[in-house]
Structures are given as structure tokens and as C-alpha cells.
């Protein structure tokens, strides 16, 4: 039996799966937590990965390994390969003003959409580089190379052989703001505009290219976490993947690149050689956490209360921008609760408003994908938030389409493992692994819930 390893280095933790390359059967797994925050030293990812790998039995008997990781994070290296400063993560919004400046300097949103497929917001690496130039010029001057979290981890696994050995993949490169999915090339002029000089960048590999070796194991090119989830779940035409984790992500594998000048849809690349138009929100599963915390209950009780309240919560609406928001681009916004009356100030109404607010924000993203021509037959719901019974049962009514919920799993790590098997096998396409049980949910649409959410959404500053 040939074994492959998939690693998911997410915002919150590191997960490792060891699978049979032919069947996808799970053999071993491990996990370790990351510290909270929006900037961390990359060494903590490495340390957590060593713990997770140890728990999973290591890589000594593994033929290939690939790493999927959180996108956008800025990792700056000096000429010797040392980390210049703590990495700024995707959810660090300090570069919001830098994003606005860059959009204006390059000629506006349409120009950015045409150049790199996306209009940068604070999440994008390019905006963090501009922030570094303006606020930490010494660190900016020391920066000889810039890479992303999965690039740095793969480089470490390979023994950090030199800056010229840094590699990345199309999916993660497309989230930097200085690589074009449409042309498959870096926009080094954009990089210079942001940082003031041109550091070394990782070589962008194809989806099944080898990225080096980690001892006896071949390294895959890796991928961004969203591309990893799509590959791990086996998304096909007509499927829109909705991930409810730390962030909310609505994405779909698509045969052509997109360029949405509104900034709603990021024109990313997939892990399979196609494209991955994507909408990302900053607020997702933690909306449920916040509602459960304020009510002093667990998630099962939150679901029970939400499902006991009427659709639309009798006019109570939660706009869930607790951590600012990326889509729409409102980095300084806060959450707001509307429609509070003596009759709606009940735990059930608040629980219902929280679930509906979360789903309405994701439904806005789904609408934006459809407007870009993405076909929609069903939504595949994954991530921690998909374990909520209320989310599963209300999703088809709010999203307006059938919803499929695969059994809980580590789909990002599974996508990385599937890529590793692809690289190890040398086949023209990734192996076909059987997905576990899938729950199906249907419900009549509730357009009035979407309407009342839209009526107050844009009142949120």
C-alpha cells in the first residue's frame, strides 16, 4: 500500500491525514493548535506541524506529501532566509487604507480586475506589503523574498535549501494580488508599486508538479486552503462549495478566469489547473459562537432555539460584521441587530437572527458567483459551521438551492493528500476517491428573509 500525506495548516490549527494513495482510505491522522491572533511568527506553524505529524506517525513510510494552508499571509525573508517579522495573516485588516491607495494608484477597480482577476482588499498580500513599506521601512528594505504560509512550510520540509528553491502553486499565487490567473504570470510591476522594490518570489508550479523532497517523500506543489477543500470534496461543475469556518467561503471550480470589478468575486485559480472564483467573508462560524455565548448555551441548544422561531424572526435581523468585513469591503464595520421589539427580544428570535444573518451573508456571495456565470445546481456545505442542525436545515431556504452536506471531515487536508497521490502516481488527473455519506436538504425558498436582510445590510457602517 502506497501512503500519502495531506497537511492543512489553517488559521486555527494544523491537521495531518495519512491516506492510501489508491483508495483514499484514512490510515492515520494528527492535529495541533495554532495560537490566536492576526500576526504570528511562522515558526509556530512549523512547531504545530511537527506535533501533528508526530501524532500521525510521521512521514518515514510516506511516498508523497502536500501542504494546503491559509491564503494571503505575508511571510517576508531576508537574504539568508530568516523571517524578517511576524507574518501578517489574511484576517489582519491594518492594511485596509493601503488597499484603497493601491486601487487608486493603479487606475481603479476595473484595472485591478483585468490585471490580476481581483480587486485587492486588506486580506491580500499585496496590501500588506504596501503597509510594510509605509510603516516598517527597515523591515521592507530587509525583505529579499516574499512567500505564503504553505510556500514557507514546504520550503522548511525540504530543508530550506535557498531562496531560489521557494515554490508555490497557482491557487495560492492568485491570492497575492500580484499574480494573474488569466496569464499565469507574476505582475512584478504591481509588486514594485506595493513594496518599492522587487523581492524574489516562489516559482509557480503546475497542479501535479514536484516541489522538491522531504527526506524520502516527494513534495507536491501545495495549494491554498479553499482550493484544497474543493479538491478534497471532489467538487464538479454545478457544485458551489460553501465553507463555514473561521471565514466564510463561497467558491466553485470553473473553466475560465473571472474579473469582477465590483470586488465581490476574487478570480482565483484552482488546484486542478482550472479556476476558482471565490467570495470570502470574515464572519462565519464565529457568528454562531457569539450568539451561543451571549445566550449562555451550547450549539445544539442554539439550533433548537433557532428552529423554534418563525422564519425571519418576526423582523429581527443580525448583520454579522463582528470582525469588520471583507465582502462587502467594510474592514472597520461592526455587527448590528435590527428589529428589536419587546416581542422579539427572546433567545429564540436572537438565535434565529444569528443563523439567518450568517446564511444571508453567504447567499450574497452565492449570488455574486452566479452573476459571473458560475452554474449552480447544489451547494456543498462544509466546515465547522455545517455541523449546526439549524444551518443545515435553513440553508436551502436562504440560499435558494438544494444543499448537500458531506460527513464531517478534514477536506482541506484531504485535498492536499489527493494532490500528493496525484504527484506520486504521475497520472494526468487526480485519483478518484469515494466521498463518504452525504446528507441532502431541501426547503422552499424564503425570499422575504433575504429581502429584510438586504434592507438593513447597507445601513451597517
Describe this structure in words.
- Strand 16 and strand 17 (248-251) form a beta hairpin.
- The strands form 7 sheets. Strands 1, 2, 3, 5, 13, 14 and 15 form a 7-stranded mixed sheet that branches. A 7-stranded mixed sheet has the order 18-19-17-16-22-23-24, with helices on both faces.
- Helices cover 35% and strands 21% of the residues.
- It has 461 residues and is of the alpha/beta class.
- It has helices at residues 43-55, 96-105, 109-116, 125-135, 137-142, 149-157, 170-173, 188-195, 225-233, 285-295, 299-308, 347-371, 389-399, 411-425, 447-457, and strands at 3-9, 13-20, 26-33, 39-40, 62-69, 75-77, 87-88, 145-147, 167-169, 179-180, 185-186, 203-205, 213-214, 217-219, 223-224, 239-244, 248-251, 266-269, 275-281, 317-319, 336-338, 378-382, 403-406, 438-441.
Descriptive keywords:
single chain; 35% helix; seven-stranded mixed beta sheet; alpha/beta; 461 residues; globular; 21% strand
Briefly, what is this?
With 461 residues, the chain is α/β, with parallel strands linked by helices.
Amino acid at each position: 500500500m502506497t501512503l500519502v500525506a495531506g497537511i492543512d495548516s489553517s488559521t486555527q490549527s494544523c491537521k495531518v491525514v495519512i491516506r492510501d494513495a489508491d483508495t483514499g482510505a484514512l490510515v492515520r491522522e494528527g492535529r495541533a493548535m495554532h495560537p490566536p491572533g492576526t500576526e504570528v511568527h511562522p515558526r509556530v506553524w512549523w512547531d504545530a506541524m511537527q506535533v501533528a505529524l508526530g501524532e500521525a506517525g510521521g512521514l518515514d513510510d510516506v511516498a508523497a506529501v502536500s501542504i494546503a494552508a491559509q491564503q494571503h499571509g505575508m511571510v517576508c525573508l531576508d537574504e539568508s532566509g530568516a523571517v524578517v517579522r511576524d507574518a501578517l495573516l489574511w484576517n489582519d485588516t491594518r492594511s485596509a487604507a493601503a488597499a484603497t491607495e493601491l486601487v487608486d494608484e493603479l487606475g481603479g477597480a476595473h484595472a485591478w480586475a483585468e490585471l490580476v482577476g481581483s480587486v485587492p482588499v486588506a486580506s491580500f498580500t499585496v496590501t500588506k506589503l504596501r503597509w510594510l513599506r509605509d510603516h516598517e521601512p527597515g523591515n521592507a528594505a530587509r525583505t529579499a523574498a516574499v512567500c505564503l504560509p504553505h510556500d514557507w512550510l514546504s520550503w522548511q520540509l525540504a530543508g530550506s535549501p535557498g531562496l531560489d528553491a521557494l515554490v508555490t502553486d497557482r491557487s495560492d499565487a492568485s491570492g497575492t494580488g500580484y499574480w494573474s490567473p488569466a496569464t499565469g504570470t507574476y505582475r512584478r510591476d504591481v509588486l514594485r508599486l506595493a513594496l518599492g522594490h522587487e523581492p524574489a518570489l516562489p516559482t509557480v508550479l503546475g497542479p501535479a508538479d514536484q516541489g522538491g523532497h522531504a527526506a524520502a517523500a516527494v513534495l507536491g506543489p501545495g495549494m491554498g486552503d479553499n482550493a484544497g477543500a474543493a479538491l478534497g470534496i471532489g467538487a464538479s461543475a454545478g457544485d458551489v462549495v460553501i465553507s463555514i469556518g473561521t471565514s466564510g467561503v463561497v467558491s466553485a471550480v470553473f473553466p475560465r478566469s473571472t474579473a469582477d470589478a465590483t470586488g465581490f468575486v476574487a478570480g482565483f485559480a484552482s488546484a486542478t489547473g482550472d479556476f476558482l472564483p471565490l467570495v470570502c467573508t470574515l464572519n462565519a462560524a464565529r457568528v454562531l459562537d457569539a450568539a451561543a455565548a451571549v445566550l449562555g448555551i451550547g450549539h445544539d441548544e442554539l439550533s433548537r432555539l433557532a428552529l423554534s422561531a418563525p422564519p425571519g424572526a418576526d423582523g429581527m435581523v443580525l448583520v454579522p460584521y463582528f470582525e469588520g468585513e471583507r465582502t462587502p469591503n467594510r474592514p472597520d464595520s461592526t455587527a448590528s441587530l435590527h428589529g428589536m421589539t419587546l416581542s422579539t427580544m427572546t433567545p429564540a428570535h436572537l438565535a434565529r437572527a444569528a443563523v439567518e444573518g450568517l446564511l444571508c451573508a453567504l447567499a450574497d456571495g452565492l449570488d455574486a458567483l452566479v452573476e459571473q456565470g458560475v452554474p449552480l445546481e447544489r451547494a456543498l456545505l462544509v466546515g465547522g459551521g455545517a455541523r449546526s442542525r439549524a444551518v443545515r436545515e435553513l440553508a436551502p431556504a436562504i440560499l435558494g438551492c438544494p444543499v448537500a452536506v458531506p460527513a464531517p471531515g478534514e477536506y482541506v487536508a484531504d485535498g492536499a493528500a489527493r494532490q500528493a497521490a496525484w504527484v506520486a502516481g504521475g497520472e494526468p488527473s487526480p485519483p478518484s476517491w469515494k466521498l463518504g455519506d452525504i446528507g441532502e436538504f431541501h426547503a422552499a425558498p424564503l425570499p422575504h428573509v433575504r429581502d429584510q436582510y438586504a434592507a438593513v445590510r447597507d445601513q451597517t457602517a
